[in-house]
Amino acid sequence: MNAIHGLLTLANTAPAATASADGADSLLRTLTGLPEQASDQAEASDPLFVFIIGLSVFFFVLIIVLMVWFALKYRRREPGQEAISQASHSNLLEIAWSLPPLVIVMIIFFVGMKGFVTMANPSANTIRVDVLAKKWNWSFSYPGTALQNHPELLLPKGVPVEVVVRSEDKDVIHSLFIPAFRVKKDAVPNKYNELYFTPTRSGTYPVFCAEYCGTSHSTMLSRVTVYDTKAQWAKAVEDAARLPFKELPDELFAEWLAIGNAEQFEQFREKVAAIDTEWEEKAGKMIQPSVRGEMLATSHGCMQCHTADGERSTGPTWKNLYRLERTFTDGTKAVADENYLRESILQPNRKVVATYASGQMPQFQGKIPEREIAAILSYIRSLKD
Amino acid sequence: MTTTPTQPTAPTPTPRAPQPLPAEENAPINYLNETRGIWSWMTTLDHKRIGVMYLVGVIVSFFLGGVMAILLRTELFSAGPGVAKLIGDALGHDKWQDTYNQMFTLHGALMVFLFIIPGIPAAFGNFVLPIMLGAKDVAFPRLNLFSFYLWCGGAVFFIAAIALGGLDTGWTFYTPYSTDPASSTFGGVIPAVFGAFLLGFSSILTGVNFIASIHMLRPKVMGWFKMPLMLWALYSTAIIQILATPVLGITLLLLIAERAGDIGVFDPSKGGDPILYQHFFWFYSHPAVYIMILPAMGVVSEVISAMSRKHIFGYSFIAMSSLAIALLGFLVWGHHMFTSGQSDTLNAIFSFITFFIAVPSAIKVFNWLATMYKGAILLKSPMFYAMSFIWVFSIGGLTGLPLAAISTDIHLHDTYFVVAHFHYVMVGGTVFAFLAALHYWWPKMFGKHYDEKPSLVAWFFIFMGFNVTFFVQFIMGAHGMPRRYADWSVEAWKASQIGKGLDTSFIESKVQLFEVCHKISTIGSYGMLIGFLILSYVLVRSLMAGKPASRNPWGANTLEWHCSSPPPHENFATQPQPNDPYNYSGWTYEPTLEGYKACEPKEPEH
Amino acid sequence: MSQADADHQHHDEHVAHHFESAGQQVSSGKLGMWVFLATEILMFGGLFVLYAVYRHNNPETFEYGHLLLETKWGAINTLVLIASSFTMAWGVRTAQLNKRKATSVLLTLTLLGGLGFMCIKYIEYSGKFSHGTGPGKFFDVVAYEKYYNKHQADHAHDHDAKGEAHDEPAEPAPVLHGTTRAAAIAPAVNFHSDIADPAAGPAGLVKLDPPKPKGFHIPWVHDKPTPAQVVQSRNFVDIYFAMTGLHGIHVLVGMGLIGWILSRNMRGHFSSKNYMAVDLVGLYWHLVDLIWIFLFPLLYLIHT
Predict the structure, then answer these.
(1) In chain A, what are the domain boundaries?
(2) A134 phi and psi, to 5 degrees?
(3) Is residue C71 part of a domain?
(4) How many CB atoms lie within 10 A of CB B28?
(5) DSSP classification of residue C138
(6) Which H or E run contains B549?
(7) Range of the domain at C246
(8) Contact yes or no for C191 and A287 at CB 8 A
(9) Residues of B numbered 212-251 whose beta carbons fall under 8 angstroms of chain C's beta carbons: which are they?
(10) Domains identified in chain B, total number
(11) Is there a domain that residue B416 lies in?
(12) Which chain B positions have a beta carbon within 8 Å of A190's beta carbon?
C-alpha cells in the first residue's frame, strides 16, 4: 500500500510532459485521431497517446517490414528446398527484444499514472457539479447556485471543476463521457464517483453516455458549454435558473437567488404564495438541495444530535465535516467524503468516530430515499467556511 | 443445429488423382469411415471424431455470429433506422434500437461463448493433442464426449434464448441491467446465461482432460521441453480454463438466482454490489481472452516453424511466455474497470501488472520472426494466415498500450477504439490462427488437399476486409464514438433531452466523421463476407473432390504427421519415436507424394 | 513404450485401450479428479469471496442473521457428514482389500449419511420458507412477524421459569409496513412531495440497534431475531441459501455417485486391482464434506 502511494507521489512530482497548443501538436493529434482538446486532462494525456501511437507505428513497421522481407527473401523457390540455417536460440537476442519493451512500457505506465492522479485528486477552489444519470437523460445540478437538474453542463474556462456522478436509485449503470475533455466516469446507483479537470477552451462539446444502458442508450446525449470567464458562466447559470420563473418580478427573483437556508426559503415561499401558488410549487421543486437538506435534516431529527455550528453534541458536528479526515474507534482512518457520509447515515455503527459512543444513532437503511440522502449531503457540504 | 458432419464419405480416388497413394500415406480405412452412420458418430469416444464434431459446431456458431455481424454492420452503414427497423417490425419490437441492441448482444455472445473459446482448443486441440503426444486418445474419452454434449446443450440454450425473444444485455451481462426484468425486458436472458454456464462447464472438462492427458499420456522420452509448442499453449490454456471458468460459473448462477428469484447479491436496489459483479465477471473474462489467444499462438508457432522448414527459434522462451501470459492474465482483470470508481490504488496495480503482458507477447512475435529468418518459407495458405496473425496481433497488441495506461484509457474506454482493439486481438488473433490451423491440419483431418489459388483469393478478401472493417474504428473511437450505439445521427441529438430547438452545428463535423467511418467499416465487413464464402466453397470442394493428401504434405515433424492422413482409429499403426518436434532433417521431399517421406534424421548443428 | 511398462504385455480388461497400464490409468484418474476438485474449490471460492466482501462491507447484515439458523441442526449435520466421510474412507479401504460385502455396507451407510444430511437440510429450509425468511422473493417480513409473535408468546413462560435475562423484547414487535423486500426497504417515513413536511418528524423510525451479544455465542433455540433485525439480515439469508444450496446440490450429486458405485460394487465390478471409481467418488465426497466444515462456522457460529 505504502509503496503504491510512494509511486503515486513520485509520478505526481515528475516533470510534466507539457503540451503546447502549437500547430505541430495539433497536427499530431489529428493524425492520431484525437478530437478537439478542451481540458487540462486532454493536455496531459494527449502527448502520451501520441507517443504511444508513434511507438506503435515504429514497432509495427519494424515487425511487418522484417516479416515481409523474410517471407520474400527466404521464400521456398522450389519444392523440397531446405532452410539455410537451423539456428534455434540466442539468449542475447531474447534479452535484446525483452528488455527494451519492458523499459518502454514502464515509462508509459508512469506517465499514464501521473495523468490519472491529477484526474483523481481535487484541486482547491473548485466549482462543483452534481450529475445524476437516469434512463435516459442527464441532470446537472450546480450547488451554491439556483440552477438544479439542468439538462446541460455549463462550465467556465480556466476554473477547476469537481464533478460528482451517480445514477438514480434503482436505475442501471451509466457513464459520463466528454471526449473533448478526455474524461469519463461511471454513474453507479448508490455510489458517488468523483472526477476532476479544468476546461481550457471555450466552446460547445458533446456529452455521451458510454456505458450501455438499454433502448435509448444512443440518445442519452447532452452538451457542455464552456464560457470564457467565470462571470459569463455565472450569468448563464442565472439565466438558466430563471427559465422556470420567467414571469417572476425581478426583485423576487433576486431574493430567490439569494436563498441560503431554510428560513429564508420559508420567507420567500410565503411571499410568493401570496402572489401565485404555481410559483410556490415551482419554488418547492427548484429549491437548492442544500436548503432542502437542511429541512430534511431537521425533520429526520438529525439536528437533535448533530450541530451546524461546530459545537460538540451527542454526535459530531457537521460544520466543516466534508472531506475531513476522521479517526474511528478501531483506530482506522477515512476521509469523510460522500460515500462515507452516506454510509454513516444508513449504517451509523459501522464506522464510529473516536470519542463518540456507538449505538446512539438509529440506522436509516431502508428508511430514507437516496435523493434525500443526496440533499442532506449537499447541506453538510454547504456547512464549510 | 446439426452436430454431425454431412461428409465425409469414403475417400474414393477421383479423376483428379490419377495415382492412388499407398495406404500408409492416405489410409482408405480411417477414423472417418471405419464405422458408419450418425449413431456411430454420436456415441464415438474417438478424440478425432469429437474434434471434427466440435469443428462443425463452432463453424455453425461462427456462421450464426457472422450473420449477426453482417446485420449489425448493415444497420450501421448509415445513421438512423435501417435493417434493424425492418427486422424489429417483423419481430414486433417497439423500438428499432432494441433490435440493434439484440443484434450486438447475440453477435458477441455467440462469437465469444460458442465460437472463440472452444474454437481452437476444443476443435483442433482435441484432434491434435493426443496424436502430438503419440497417444491413442485423451485421458478421459467419455468425459470428452460428455463435454461435447455440454457444448451442444449450451448451444441449445442459446437457440432457446433467441426463440424466447432474445436478449439485449450485451455479452457481458452487466448488473443491474441484466438482473432487472424491467430494464432488460426480453425473455432470453436466463436461457442465455444458463447456456453460458453450460459452455463454461464444457470448457472446464476439456481443460481437465487436457491437463491429465499431457501429464499422464506423454511418453517418457518426451520431456516437458520436448513437447510441441501447441501442447504448451494448450496446457497454459487448460490452466486458465480450470481456474477461471468456475468463478464465471458461480457468478452466472447467482445472476440467474437474482433475476429469477429476486435474491440480492449484485443489484444495488436489493442491497447488492454491481461492481462486485464486474470484478467476478472480469476475473473470468479477462483470462478468457487468453483462452482465446494462447492456443492461437500455439498454432502459429507450429505453422511458422513447419512452413519455414526451420527449427523454432527460442523454444523455451515461447513455451514459458505462454505460461507467463496465463498466470499474469489472472492478475489484470481490473483494467476493464478503470472508470467504474474502484479505488485509485487498485487502478494503479492493475495498470502496472497489465503492462507486463506486453513482454511475453513481444517475445513470441520476435521469436516467430527469428524463426522465419533464413528459413525456406513455403508461401501457401497456412503461412499466409499465420503471417496475417502476426500483422493483426501486432496491431491489436500495440493498441492495447493506450488502453493499459490509465490516463489514456479513461478517454478510450467503451469507445469504438476498444471495439477495434479487441476485434484485432480476438477476431484477428483467434480467427486468423483458426484459419491457419484449418488449412494446416486440413489434409491431416480429411486426407484431402484444397485448391491453393482460390484459397489465397479467400485469404485476400478476409485479410483486407478485416483491416478495412476494423482499422477505421480506431479513428472514430479516438474521436469519441461510444460503442453499442444504435444511432449517431443529428436526429439522435434532436431526440435527446436537449433536442428541442437544438443548434446542432457543434456536432455536425463529428457526425459526418462517424458516418464516413461506419460506411467504410461496413464495406470492409462485406469484403470479409465474400472471403468467407469463397473459403467455404474451397473447403466443400476439397471434401467432395480434393486430391488425396499424403501423410506429411508440409514436412513437419510433430507426431501427427507420422501417421497416415486421415489417421486410423488408434492413430498409429506402429508407435512413433518422438524426437525434437522441430528437427526437420528426418523428412525429405518426395514429388510423387506431393509431400515428404521419412528418412534418417540428422542431429541439428547448433 | 517404456521399459517399466514392458512387462505389461497382456492388456488388463479394466484398462482402457489408450492406457499403457493400470497404474497409468489410476494416476490419470486421480490427477483428473484432483484438477476437477480444484475447479470445485474455485467455484465455492467465488461464494466465499462474496461472503467476505459482504461481511466487510455490510457487517450489520451478519449481526443477527445467524440467529435465524439453528446451531443444533447445523452441528448435527456436521457430525453426520463427518461420519459419512469416515464410512466412505473405510469403504475405499475395504474395496482395496477385496471385501465386497463390507464395502457395500459402508457405502450404504455413507449414502444414508448423505440422506440424513439432506433430510435435516429439508427441515431447516422448509422452516425458513414457511416463516418468511426464504431467499429473494420468498422473503416476507409480515409472515415472519406472525411467526415471531407466536414464538415469543409460546416461550414467554420459559423465560420466566428460567429467570434468564433476555435482550429481546417480550411484547410483540412493532408492525412493519409491507410484505416484500421492496416494501421492506421502502421508506418508512413517507416523503411523497419533494419537500419534507417538517411536522412529520422522525416518526416511524425504529431504533434498530439493541445491545448485541459479543464474542462467541451459541444462541438458544428460542433466541429469535426481531422482525426489524430480520429485515436487516435479508442479504444474509440470500447468501445462506446460495452457499448451502450449491452445497446441497453437490451432496445430491455425491449421493448419486455413491449409489452408482454401490450398485457397481454389488454387481462385483470392483476388486483390489480395480477400485479407482470408489476412490474418486470418495475424494469427491470428502471435498463436499470439507466445504460444509467451512460453511458451518461461517454461517451458523460466528457473528459480530
Answers:
(1) 2-70+90-120, 127-242, 247-287, 292-382
(2) -145, 165
(3) yes
(4) 15
(5) G
(6) none
(7) 22-56+66-139+227-301
(8) no
(9) 212-213, 215-217, 219-221, 242-247, 249-251
(10) 1
(11) yes
(12) 268
Judged against a pLDDT cut of 90, whether residue B334 lies above it is answered with yes
Handedness of CA A180, A185, A188, A191 (dihedral sign): negative
Asked if C188 lies within 8 A of A285 by C-beta distance, the reply is: no
pLDDT band with cut points at 50, 70 and 90 for residue A362:
confident
Into how many domains does chain C fold?
A: 1
| Residues in chain C, pLDDT under 70 | 1-13, 156-222, 304
Q: What is the pLDDT of residues C182-223, one digit of tens each?
A: 444 433 333 333 333 333 334 334 444 444 444 444 444 447
Residues B212, C35: contact at Cβ < 8 Å? Answer: yes
Q: How many CB pairs below 8 A link A and B?
A: 335
CA A373, A375, A377, A379 torsion-angle sign = negative
| Range(s) of the domain holding residue B288 | 38-554+570-598
Identify whether B18 is part of a domain.
no
With contact defined as 3+ CB pairs under 8 Å, the chains touching B are A, C
Residue C8 is assigned to a structural domain of this protein: no
Check A1 against B314: CB less than 8 A apart: no
pLDDT digits (tens, 9 = 90+) for B560-603: 999 998 999 989 888 888 889 999 998 999 988 889 998 887 76
Q: What is the pLDDT of residue B51?
A: 96
Q: Do A64 and B394 touch (CB under 8 A)?
A: yes
- DSSP class of residue B423 equals I
CATH of the domain at C235: 1.20.120.80
Q: pLDDT per residue over B42-82, tens digit each? A: 999 999 999 999 999 999 999 999 999 999 999 999 999 99
Q: Please, are residues C196 and A372 in contact by the beta-carbon 8 Å criterion? A: yes
Contact present, A222 and B506 (Cβ < 8 Å): no
Tell me how far apart the alpha carbons of residues C286 and B369 are, in angstroms, rounded to a whole number: 51
Please give the class, per CATH, of domain A127-242: mainly beta
Asked if the structure places residue B26 within a domain, the reply is: no
pLDDT band at A258 (very low <50, low <70, confident <90, very high): confident
Among B250, B254, B575, the residue to mutate for chain C (most C Cβ within 10 A): B250
- Which residues does chain A have within 8 Å of residue B365's beta carbon, measured at their own beta carbons? 63
Distance between CA B311 and CA B461 in Å, rounded? 31
With a CB cutoff of 8 Å and minimum separation 6, the contacts of B165 are B186, B187, B188
Give the chains touching C; criterion: ≥3 Cβ pairs < 8 Å. A, B
The per-residue DSSP string of B274-322 comes to HHHHHHHHHHHHHHHHHHHHHHHHHHHHHHHHHHHTSPPTTHHHHHHHH
- Residues C206, A349: C-beta atoms closer than 8 Å: no
Task: Identify the CATH number of the domain in which residue B376 sits.
Answer: 1.20.210.10
> Does a structural domain hold residue C278?
yes
User: Does A292-382 carry CATH code 1.20.120.910?
Assistant: no
In angstroms, the separation between the Cα of residue C152 and the nearest Cα of chain A is 24
Q: pTM of the predicted model, to two decimals?
A: 0.89
